[in-house]
Amino acid sequence: MKPDRAGRIASSGLPRGARSLLSAILLLGLLAPARADDPSPLKLFEKELVDVIARTERSVVSIARVSTKADAGGERNSDQLDPFGPRRDNDPTSPAYIPADFGSGVILAREKDKSARFVLTNRHVVVGTRRGEAKVDERTRFFVRLASQRVLEARVIAADPRSDLAMLRLDFDGTEVKPDEAPPLALAEQEAKKGQMVIALGNPYAIARDGSASASLGIISNISRRPAPRTTEAFNKDENATIHEYGTLLHVDTRLSLGTSGGALVDLDGKLIGLTTSLAALEGYEKSVGFAIPMDAGMRRIIESLLDGYEVEYGFLGVAPHDARFVDLANVRGQAPQPSAAMVRWIARNSPAQAANIHPGDCILRVNDRPVFSSADLMREVGLLGPDTIATLTLLRPVTEEVSTVRLRLGKWPVYDDSQIIATARRYPPWRGLSVDYPTGRRRFMPGDQPGAWFTQSVAAVVISEVEPQGEAARAGLQAGQFITHVDGEAVTTPAEFHRRIGSGTSPVTLALSNGRRIELAAKAP
């Protein structure tokens, strides 16, 4: 594209963000306007920047987490430490109120319910800590301040420790606030790229009591980052590890302090490309480093689950991997297709990997055309796909030096601690007083007390995850932790298969358990 006689670029066909970047290039003197009365490139870029911020800042809100409990005299009061001095007002709806637990959030909406408004934020904003039990009860209330300075109460509908994401729903009932005062942000359609210019919008240090988000401009310095340096071996064994410790995060050069968690990272078209997080400050990492959770396909799947109020589920392959550099492998004599990969050490019995005929020693090069250079890459890519998803793996078998592909259906990564999860809805309703999960869905039900023992003892079945005390299943002797292998003679290994087999739920059903028992449940009146 060439400048016209006046030295200007015809940019009507370019997207808004591209025009802004072009203005930035002009600043470097590569192209310069010849006419003195033309707006300077700096002014053009500034105008674009101001316009994007004005369009998006109303979608970024501040969240106050207020916990109240009875004091020694029986009165209810706020039991919080205020890092900014005494409060001038104890009413969370007052403009003078300064919360002790605070953070940012981004307003989202759904096509199927356009009048509803949701707030996406970090789980540690909602719970108050990154690790540990999700203690949100009737004494914990959430107040969301909009850009209009109106305050709405919100309730948590889902929170996921592995992604450190949470979803709140705004409550408009009994207020004069209309959904139009809470405009949602659209998600970016393209994945983030290194060097991309972005705007961070948030409310650090509780200054959002006036409803105004702070803005800063920067670039994406890198992608697929980890929040703190940890070894793969350490977080492979860490039940509290988040998916981000396998390298999901965007590294941005805007400083993100405590209180910036849950803010928006938008591109120059004003679309949400990431959710800012103060993981650096929480982990003790370099304080100038800023991180954001990307809005890529894997995270969008997680967000959809949170919007539904569901527990977020992660994919499971059933291998114990470790990092492998091909230069160190004596049995790879030819030209390796890439410098490193994830090598399989062990295969879990009855796992997706075993079903796909993957062997110990195989090197996994790609997952769905995404490169795998380490065990962390493998854990990330498989986890983000989710269970019951078909994945294509590219393998190198060092013994034969053959590269091949396999297709398999993923299982579910085990939940180690249910208390860290908040879910207000179920994917499947209880059937006759019982609920089921993938066989690996809950670590406490997996066979073997020693770490790794379940690799050789896992079962092809569904596990009973919950039994209602007075329900029909309990009266029949069924208990949480038992494995159902067949329904009316048909094998079941996923919750979806189980619910398809039981049909309408009123017919007589015979359940076969992994211990050889058969339980017959009589027909039930519709």
Report on this structure.
With 526 residues, this protein is an alpha+beta fold. The protein is built from 10 helices and 28 strands. The strands form 5 sheets. A 6-stranded antiparallel barrel has the order 1-3-4-7-6-5. A 6-stranded antiparallel barrel has the order 8-9-10-13-12-11. Strands 15, 16, 17, 18, 19 and 20 form a 6-stranded antiparallel β-sheet that branches. The longest helix has 16 residues, at 41-56. It is flat, with a radius of gyration of 26 Å. The model is unreliable at 1-20, 26-31, 70-87 and 231-237 (pLDDT under 50).
Domain tally? 3
CATH class designation of the largest domain: Mainly Beta
**How many whole angstroms does the radius of gyration measure?**
26 Å
Distance between the termini: 70 Å
Shape: flat
Number of helices: 10
Count of distinct strands = 28
Main β-sheet, spatial strand arrangement: 1-3-4-7-6-5
Mean pLDDT reading: 82
State the share of residues found in helices, binned by percent. 10-25%
Biggest sheet character: 6 strands, antiparallel, barrel
Structural class: alpha+beta
Q: Low-confidence parts lasting 5 or more residues at pLDDT below 50? A: 1-20, 26-31, 70-87, 231-237
Oligomerization status of the protein chains: single chain
What percentage of amino acids are in beta strands?
A: 25-35%
